[in-house]
């Protein structure tokens, strides 16, 4: 097909020029000049066409450069991943800088190291399915020169994780840290955390002497960190300032939804079978679950209670609904008595009765 095109583009105009030469001389000179210019232009177009049609599929700077990754590893394009891995391990053992021994006159340590890096690059390219598809497409379509550059650097430089998830997770951590910093300034929580640290003996003792003796600032920083850790552990922050967790991201929840749904159904079926049909007695774990559900507390809130309080719940048998109702009324009456004797609560009730929140006043309290 190419030879046929050469005939029509170059040889045929030459024959036409020979026919034109039988015309008068003053016309032959102009026609011959035009014919020669036409042949030069056609020849240049043919050279450019032939050059672009034979662009090399191997591009320097991409993948294995001007060498084929398949030839570097000594495998065919149809080789499986296991064959590629086997060939890589053999060549890696041979050209590893710690084991390479030059056997030829033109081989040196530097050439062995370059060969090892080339083998590693070829393996990294062919072991990944997506990279291998891009590389095979480059070999089959060498004319798409700039497209190969874009595909190569897009895979090389593109982030592996969605940037939006990273930003969301970082902002979530910032909100949680801000909440902890605020709770560190609240005297109520700070005093409680300090008391817990003293009871558990977590505060450092300044008895070191000599080189191991620490300054007061270092001890104060350590105490602040202990108080911060206790507040993080004991306080259950909810809402937009709660402690971030990967499982709380919407995408993870959607992915794990079938699993949690199956676990929920299985747990309810087991509960119904054991305690409704068979009539088994509740264990401590089930009793504490019923108590926590009656009190409408989260698992973290319930776990933050001290052991004596939880033992008192079990002693009062609060998993029984009637017992819990009695306990709830006792707590409400106790709260009313405390509020009745509280001076601040009395002042608040007088203010609500005489003035109320909708009345303007210039009183300081």
Automatic annotation (TrEMBL):
Top-rank taxon: Eukaryota
Keyword Transmembrane carried by entry: yes
Record-linked CDD domains: DnaJ
GO BP annotation list: protein folding
Location of the protein in the cell: Membrane
Assigned protein family: Belongs to the DNAJC25 family.
Protein name: DnaJ homolog subfamily C member 25
Species for this entry: Danionella cerebrum
């Amino acid at each position: 097909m190419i030879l046929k095109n050469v005939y029509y583009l170059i040889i045929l105009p030459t024959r036409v020029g020979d026919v034109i030469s039988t015309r008068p001389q003053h016309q032959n000179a102009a026609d011959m000049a035009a014919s020669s210019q036409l042949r030069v232009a056609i020849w240049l177009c043919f050279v450019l066409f032939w050059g672009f049609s034979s662009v090399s599929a191997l591009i320097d700077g991409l993948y294995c450069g001007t060498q084929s990754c398949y030839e570097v590893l000594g495998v065919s394009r149809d080789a499986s991943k296991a064959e590629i891995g086997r060939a890589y391990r053999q060549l890696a053992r041979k050209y590893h800088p710690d084991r390479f021994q030059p056997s030829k006159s033109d081989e040196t340590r530097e050439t062995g190291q370059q060969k090892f890096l080339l083998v590693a690059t070829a393996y990294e390219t062919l072991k990944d399915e997506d990279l291998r598809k891009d590389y095979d497409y480059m070999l089959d379509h060498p004319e798409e020169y700039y497209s190969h550059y874009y595909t190569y650097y897009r895979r090389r430089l593109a982030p592996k994780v969605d940037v939006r998830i990273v930003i969301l997770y970082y902002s979530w951590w910032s909100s949680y840290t801000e909440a902890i910093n605020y709770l560190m300034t609240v005297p109520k929580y700070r005093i409680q955390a300090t008391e817990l640290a003293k009871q558990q003996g977590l505060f450092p003792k300044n008895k070191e002497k000599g080189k191991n003796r620490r300054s007061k600032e270092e001890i104060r920083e350590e105490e602040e960190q202990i108080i911060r850790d206790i507040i993080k552990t004991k306080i259950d922050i909810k809402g937009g300032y709660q402690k971030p967790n990967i499982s709380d991201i919407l995408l993870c929840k959607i992915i794990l939804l079938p699993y949690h749904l199956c676990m929920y159904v299985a747990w309810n079926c087991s509960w119904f079978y054991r305690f409704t049909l068979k009539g088994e007695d509740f264990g401590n774990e089930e009793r504490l679950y019923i108590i926590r559900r009656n009190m409408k507390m989260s698992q973290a809130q319930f776990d933050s209670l001290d052991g004596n309080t939880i033992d008192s719940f079990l002693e009062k048998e609060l998993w029984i609904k009637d017992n819990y109702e009695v306990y709830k009324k006792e707590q409400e009456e106790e709260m009313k008595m405390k509020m009745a004797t509280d001076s601040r609560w009395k002042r608040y009730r007088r203010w609500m009765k005489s003035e109320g929140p909708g009345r303007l006043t210039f009183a300081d309290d």
